[in-house]
Amino acid sequence: MVLESLVGPIKAEKNKKWLFIYGLVYAVIGAVVSLWVFKSQASMVMVFLTVLAAFPLFYKTLRYEEKKDLNKNLTEKVLIKEHGKALTYLMYLFMGFVVAYTIIFLLFPEATSNNLFSSQITTINAINSNITGNFSTVDVFFKILSNNLRVLFFCIFFAFFYGAGALFILAWNASVIGAAAGSFVNNRISEFGSYFLAVPISLMRYMTHGVFEIAAYFVAGLAGGIISVAVINHKTTSDQFKHVVIDSLDLILLGVGMLVFAALVEVYFTPLFF
After folding, report:
1. How far apart (Å, rounded) are the C-alpha atoms in residues 267 and 47?
2. Distances (CA, A) of 259 to 92, 105, 157, 188
3. Mind listing the pLDDT tens digit for each residue in 118-153?
4. Best label site of 57, 179, 215, 235, fewest CB within 10 Å?
5. How far is the C-alpha of 253 from the C-alpha of 26, rounded, in Å?
6. What angle is formed at CA 101 by the lines to CA 107 and CA 15, rounded to 5 degrees?
7. How far is CA 216 from CA 117, 210, 213, 255, in A?
8. Global pTM?
9. Where are the extended beta strands (E) located within the chain?
10. Which among 38, 20, 28, 31 is positioned nearest to 90, based on CA atoms?
11. Are 72 and 243 in contact (CB under 8 A)?
12. How far apart, in whole angstroms, are the C-alpha atoms of residue 211 and residue 8?
């Protein structure tokens, strides 16, 4: 009850940067408790406990954003801007997850980190094997984009059927990025000479394009969740419901556009610097 009562959507909009701290706290507590109580399944339980702490905020956000959609005085352009407030503080929350997971990966002994992030490391190896080989940059672009679009669909699906269920996918992605960033630091620490330099560079490597991907997933999660709340609260034939659906479709299209841009950055821009 303590963690889930820390912040609501209205408070989050006014204190966006504090969500980064909340993300750190949620992820660290989730990791410590998972190792302490569920050591053999720690990699998944860690993510689940992080989601459990952040779930009330995300669900309240869906309800709050759906109320904005019901305001007939707001145009589609204004609604997108209003949803942007929620997107901003959710991104701060996500970055808290990522930084916490990266630091945890680096601070714990190697054997403990490998156990805590076992599922994430397996996922990273699978992703790397899927995009390595004799592929042109165009092929890699479409592979990355198709995979990201699939994740986008799952965010919509989980948000629609499980309320804030998309948060699990996003927290999972944060843990994968944290493991990847931590591995990058361990493999390249001799080049940078200091963790204070290596960690920021590692995070920049993955978040240069990752920030657009995650923003797209949050947008999709908001869209799916808003529709889900609207289905519960309104008749599907009402004008209010139609207005919510139109706004949600705009959000989904925005998310798809962000993923296209993210894939372009990942394939053609990020390799120039990392």
Report:
1. 28
2. 19, 27, 17, 28
3. 999 998 888 777 666 566 788 889 989 999 999 999
4. 235
5. 31
6. 120
7. 25, 10, 5, 4
8. 0.88
9. none
10. 20
11. yes
12. 23
For 63, 102, 244, the CA distances from 163, given in Å and listed in that order, are 10, 28, 16
State yes or no: pLDDT of 72 exceeds 90.
no
Structure tokens at 114: 């490998």
- Compute CA distances 167 → 48, 62, 231, whole Å: 10, 12, 20
> Smallest Cα–Cα separation from 209: which of 251, 180, 249?
180
- For 225-258, b/e burial (b = at least 16 CB within 10 A) is bbbbbbeeebeeeeeebebbbebbebbbebbbeb
**Can you say how many angstroms the Cα of residue 140 is from the centroid of all Cα atoms in its chain?**
22
Length of the chain counted residue by residue:
274
**What residues does each domain of the chain span?**
3-273
Check the CA dihedral 173-174-179-185 and report its sign.
Answer: positive
Q: Which amino acid is at 200?
A: P
| C-alpha to C-alpha distance for 54 and 203, rounded to whole angstroms | 22
Q: Do 220 and 181 form a contact (C-beta atoms < 8 A)?
A: no
pLDDT above 80: residue 171: yes
Long-range contacts of 71-80 (CB under 8 A, 24+ apart): 72/243, 76/246, 76/247, 76/250, 79/247, 79/250, 80/250, 80/251, 80/254
Cα of 67 vs its chain's centroid, Å: 23
Q: How many Cβ atoms from other residues are within 10 Å of residue 22's Cβ? A: 22
